[in-house]
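Anyone up for a design puzzle?
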């Protein structure tokens, strides 16, 4: 009966070992898997050799098969060491300069084993006892075995230190790998020192293979040794401020970092350990998050988390996890605390509402009266012949100030409208020269007050494909700025040239110019502080930003060439209407 149990144990351990080896080979692109496949191959040969030795009859055959399966066991040791080095990411130990000497040591050990019948350095008193091969191990054999065990223990130490810096899943994986190695080592060491009964000593190989195979089976299939995020990244994930939860393809949480465990500690009834929790329960308050994990699809969700003390808002990014063969293995959810951002967003929304109300007031309670006042000054201008010279000068001053204020309010409202809702421009063929003439007439009183001549040098027939109001607003701002920063008696020239499919419009003045450090800020995203003009004129600083936005929306570019004391040339390009 014991003989049958012995053989059955060997066969079962060999079958499990072969299965684990095949799985490791299939996943050989994963870190450590290819070396583990070699380990399982040697362990399978060890188990098969032990089985054949057990059923053989003669001393010679038993000794040959013993050497065979012991050689497989010997070479399993260095490949187990390589598996650990590869798994924990110590690539320098896998260089040929390191691996070849290690393999050479174990090759010498195997050679001594096969030639022991000549020198008897490893075994003494070889004999058959009740059908079992028996012998006494020499001190050299004990030393070789101890050195081999020390090599394996060194690898386990690397793995233990590495897993100690990682998450719970890595520690569970490491525990089963430790059991897979340490239990057989302890058994063999005891067997080398204590004289077991022949039958019990014959069982040790089956125990070695069986325990190792079952433990590795648990590490791989129960704790996803090759199917989840490698341990190399666990330390980083564990220290992340963001919460990380790993869910397998069956909807079970298999790992989490410290931040996630702290967050859910007050919400779970039993403990803060999320491993083993099902998402049906854990993510029940957030169906979209749960569905993304179940379907293993990428998603981004915003959730509210109500803890004991306060309500928090989190942005959850769900990403699927893939094997080397692109098979979906589960999902990783990363939770980012968005509470402060949400508060700021709500504050910004409130400020935006207040801003909209403010500009509503500007639009209705300021712009409309200014427009009315401007119309009245135009009507009064018709009565100038009946006015005294002093009254005419006052009317000119009032009309000029009203026109400037109205233009600034219009710029401000257009800019706000563009920032809030976006401007809708209706591009169509338009003649450029008439728009410039209208702008010159609009600014006639301002330029006349400073004795500045504005020359329209644009020939008739130049057509733009643009929004007429936008072009008018751009020209009004650029020409008004040219007048503003040109001393009395100066000249402003407006020109245009056709270049490829664009029309480049220039506004040239002989004014005070612009410093180089200020030029780079003129067309930025924020208003630039407006300098007083040559006659003390003030502005809002948003005119050029509005011009930049309108030109960009129209498909063109805008720029300036200037130097202090040498005047400025502002230019912008817009699409032209092609002939034919």
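Challenge accepted. My sequence:
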């Amino acid at each position: 009966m014991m003989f049958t149990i012995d053989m059955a144990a060997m066969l079962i351990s060999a079958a499990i070992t072969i299965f684990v080896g095949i799985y490791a080979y299939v996943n050989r692109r994963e870190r450590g898997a290819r070396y583990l496949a070699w380990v399982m191959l040697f362990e399978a040969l060890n188990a098969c050799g032990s089985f054949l030795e057990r059923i053989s009859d003669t001393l010679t055959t038993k000794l040959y098969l013993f050497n065979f399966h012991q050689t497989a066991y010997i070479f399993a040791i260095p490949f187990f060491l390589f598996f650990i080095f590869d798994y924990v990411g110590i690539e320098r130990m896998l260089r040929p300069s390191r691996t070849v000497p290690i393999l050479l040591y174990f090759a010498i050990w195997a050679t001594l084993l096969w030639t022991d019948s000549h020198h008897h350095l490893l075994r003494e008193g070889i004999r058959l006892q009740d059908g079992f091969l028996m012998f006494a191990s020499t001190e050299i054999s004990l030393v070789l075995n101890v050195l081999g065990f020390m090599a394996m223990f060194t690898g386990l130490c690397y793995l233990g230190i590495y897993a100690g810096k990682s998450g719970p899943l890595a520690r569970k994986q490491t525990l089963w790998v430790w059991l897979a190695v340490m239990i057989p080592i302890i058994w063999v060491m005891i067997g080398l020192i204590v004289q077991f009964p022949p039958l019990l000593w014959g069982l040790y190989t089956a125990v070695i293979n069986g325990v190792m195979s079952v433990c590795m089976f648990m590490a791989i299939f129960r704790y996803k040794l090759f199917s989840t995020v490698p341990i190399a990244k666990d330390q980083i994930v564990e220290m992340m401020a963001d919460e990380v939860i790993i869910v397998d393809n069956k909807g079970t949480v298999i790992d989490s970092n410290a931040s996630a465990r702290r967050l859910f500690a007050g919400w779970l009834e039993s403990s803060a350990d999320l491993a083993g929790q099902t998402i049906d329960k854990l993510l029940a308050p957030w169906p979209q998050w749960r569905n993304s994990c179940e379907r293993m699809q990428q998603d981004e969700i915003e959730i509210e988390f109500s803890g004991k003390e306060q309500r928090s808002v989190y942005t959850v990014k769900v990403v699927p996890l893939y094997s080397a063969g692109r098979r979906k293995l589960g999902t990783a959810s990363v939770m980012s605390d968005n509470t402060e951002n949400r508060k700021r967003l709500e504050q910004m929304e409130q400020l935006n509402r207040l801003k909209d109300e403010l500009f509503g007031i500007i639009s209705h309670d300021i712009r409309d009266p200014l427009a009315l006042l401007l119309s009245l000054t135009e009507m009064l201008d018709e009565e100038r012949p009946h006015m005294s010279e002093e009254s005419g000068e006052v009317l000119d001053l009032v009309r000029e100030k009203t026109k400037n204020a109205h233009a600034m309010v219009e710029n401000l409202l257009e800019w706000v409208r563009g920032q809030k809702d976006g401007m809708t421009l209706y591009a169509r063929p338009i003649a450029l020269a008439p728009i410039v003439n209208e702008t010159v007439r609009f600014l006639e009183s301002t330029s006349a007050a400073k004795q500045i001549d504005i020359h329209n040098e644009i020939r008739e027939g130049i057509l733009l494909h643009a929004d007429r109001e936008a072009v008018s607003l751009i020209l009004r701002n650029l020409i008004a700025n040219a007048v503003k920063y040109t001393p009395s008696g100066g000249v402003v020239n407006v020109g245009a040239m056709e270049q490829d499919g664009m029309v480049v419009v220039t506004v040239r003045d002989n004014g005070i110019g612009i410093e180089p450090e200020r030029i780079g800020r003129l067309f930025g995203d924020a208003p630039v502080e407006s300098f007083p003009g040559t006659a003390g004129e003030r502005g809002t600083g948003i005119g050029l930003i509005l011009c930049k936005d309108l030109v960009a929306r129209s498909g063109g570019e805008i720029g300036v060439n200037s130097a202090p004391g040498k005047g400025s040339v502002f230019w912008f390009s817009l699409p032209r209407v092609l002939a034919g």
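A detail worth pointing out: The two ends are 104 Å apart (CA to CA).
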